[in-house]
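LOG
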Amino acid sequence: MTFLLYGKERREGVMHYRQLKTITLAGDGLIYSACKKHLGSNDVGWTITDQDMLTAGGYNPDTHALVIDTAPSRSTVSLFEIKSICGYTYATWTPLMLTFEQLFVDAEPPSTVEALKNEFDDDECERVIVREFLYLMGGYAEGSWNWGGNSRTTAALLWEDAWSYFQQRLLG
């Protein structure tokens, strides 16, 4: 997975995205910068938005977006716009739920993968909600706040139908 900063602007009724750079969310990146105000000396749950993270990084949320590339080395394009992150911080680790809007999933690029990832309009993006669960190796007492291991078995994407089903099972 690669995390990217995009510039965005509305053009003729659609949002235009232009890739600016790779960005760091874990470690001393945008997640910790945005959530540290919620941390103390006890276990705590918190939620931060894309706006919180962009602001913490010195970026204008009106003209920037955080995007995850879930398949950076594939011949198709899978991009999701990060909307929020919920965490529960323990002394030494923090499980997370990331909420995205789907931009592209296994999309065949009209020209090259790089061209589509570099610049696109969102007029054909479905923008359905997708969630993913990850964790950070850090908490309020210690740790690096770097990503824990992620793989196809520890970083599953959940679309709304799966999420709804799991919620129903949790609620009884």
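LOG (cont.) second protein
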Amino acid sequence: MMAAMEHRDAEVSDIVIVLKAECAEKMDETVAALKGLGMEVEETDAANGVVEGTVDAGKLAEIRKWPCVEYVRVEFTYIADYPAGDKRDQDNPEEDAPDDAED
């Protein structure tokens, strides 16, 4: 039987994105694009051009290069092990099944 957190489905980062002032009117477009990358947007602050959420850590470099992004602050990065049945679970279901057979 596998130990907890032995599998690594994804490396995930909780981030805060600050948009450039000239892109404030593009908040809706930016949020839609971030969601398209797989970001789970938790909160937006259009008045300050801020988007907060969680994204696959492998997407950080791409987000930092966007023309409207002034700054990306990574608050926390962790390994996610999603439960069986979750669409993000990358473990082999057969490996996760307990071995009930006794020989």
